Amino acid sequence: MSRFMDPTTDFGFKKLFGNEDHLDITASFLNALLELKSPLLDLSFANPEQLPEAVEQRSGVFDLFCRDAGGNRYLVEMQKSRLAFIKDRMVYYSTFPIAAQAPKGHKRYRYSPPPTSALRIRDAMTAYGYEEETEDWVAAAEWNYELKAVYCVAILAYKLKGSSLVVTRGSIRNDQPPHQPFYDKLQFITVELPLFDPRKPEYSLDRPLNKWLYFLKYLPAFEQIPDVFKNDKVFQKAFWIAEFANFTPEEREEYDLVLKRHWDTYAVLQTSRDEGWAEGKAAGMAEGQAEGLAIGQAEGVAKGKAEGKLEQAQDMLQLLFTQKFGPIPDDIATAIRTINNLEQTNAVLAHFININDWETLRQYLVTPN
Q1: Residue 31 C-beta-side C-alpha neighbours within 13 Å
Q2: Which residues make Cβ contacts (< 8 Å) with residue 65, sequence separation at least 6?
Q3: Which of 135-139, 183-187, 361-365 has the lowest mean pLDDT?
Q4: 155 close to 216: Cβ distance less than 8 angstroms
Q5: What is the CB-side half-sphere exposure of residue 134 using CA atoms within 13 A?
Q6: Per-residue pLDDT at 149 exceeds 90
């Protein structure tokens, strides 16, 4: 059993960064990530659920939504499962804290005589002698459209296609040289944790941001607090919050339920992949028969599909443990690639929950059952 929780789970992320008592931790992380001209002051949490003005409109729910003393907004999402349109989602979510800055009007009511027994009470407001006027909204105060900055952050437990940088920053820029920003109050930041490798010089742990990335990616694998964190009060507090020994029974139960939902989702996806591969194999065989392929050719196709399925299972095994523990050791990567049957690979995958370090994985690769 790991000593510390996984901060990339919904429960773990909100427990660490979404608590009023831990605003110093949230501010430390955002200051390190956003590289602002001046540090955040008087950070506070806003309502993470942005409700629209009409019930038929959509709403946005964020993992973390903060404001600073200047009214700037900080929207942070932790995304553990792969989404095909994560950047579209970021743009969509950014519209809520932008639109919410417009001044709002207020409904106006006029007094009406209390209803008698002969009158039908239409609603609770009428019952108290007030009735809404025909004009729904009082005109809002004058507004010149000036907006506060919005920072939209997505922390990903997977890699985006074609990415090579751990942290990517984007804003609305002018395509024409010299490419000056067209609008710099809307910033999009993506963090791809699988790309972070503390062994590379560019990710040296002497930088605050790299310390946070190291913490987020490897926290469940730590058995002791690494020396790089021991003189930092903010990280000392973060480790205390993340340690299972300090959980209440209710928190432990909630965390276990979050993990179970994650494992259930993985199991469903794996089943869908298996069924898809089986259907593809059946369709390929039927097509081959229809085209009059020889038996030898059909056996060759089947063998190729089996080998392809084994390679996919090996890829899945390597990806899961890389996301769980970090960069995979060379000997383990070689051992995974030398597995010569699908049953052995699936046997190792079946024990994914029980494998909490590289040494245990080495043992399962030798004796999966």
Answers
A1: 16
A2: 45, 46, 47, 48, 50, 73, 74, 75, 76, 97
A3: 135-139
A4: yes
A5: 0
A6: yes
Cis bond before residue 368 (omega within 30° of 0): no
* Contacts of 317-322 spanning 24+ positions with Cβ under 8 A: 317/345, 317/348, 317/349, 320/349, 320/352, 321/352, 321/355, 321/361, 322/194
pLDDT surpasses 70 at 122? no
Considering only CA atoms, which of 45, 40, 42 is closest in space to residue 29? 40
Query: What integer is the mean pLDDT of 300-314?
Result: 60
Q: Name the burial class of residue 338, with classes exposed (0-12), middle (13-18) and buried (19+) by CB atoms within 10 angstroms of its CB.
A: exposed
Averaged pLDDT, 238-251:
94
Tokens 């052995």 belong to residue? 344
Helix (H) or strand (E) holding 172: strand 167-173
Which pLDDT score, from 0 to 100, does residue 299 have?
47
Write the DSSP symbol of residue 221.
G
**Maximum pairwise Cα distance, the chain:** 92
- Model pTM? 0.63
Alpha-carbon distance values, 252 to 36, 241, 246 (Å): 36, 12, 10
Q: Check residue 301 and give its pLDDT.
A: 43
Q: Which residues lie across from 155 on neighbouring strands?
A: 78, 191
CA distance 188 to 168: 8
pLDDT above 70: percentage of residues in the chain: 70
Q: Which residue's structure tokens are 């432990």?
A: 252
Indicate the residue type of 282. A
Confidence at residue 105, expressed as pLDDT on a 0 to 100 scale:
63
Window from 93-107, 177-191, 263-277, 321-335 with minimum mean pLDDT: 263-277
CA distance 260 to 245: 20
Mean pLDDT lowest among 64-78, 163-177, 228-242: 163-177
Task: List residues bridging with 183 in a β-sheet.
Answer: 172
Q: Assess contact for 37 and 70: CB atoms under 8 A.
A: no
C-alpha separations of 166 from 105, 186, 203, 246, 253 in Å: 43, 20, 9, 31, 33
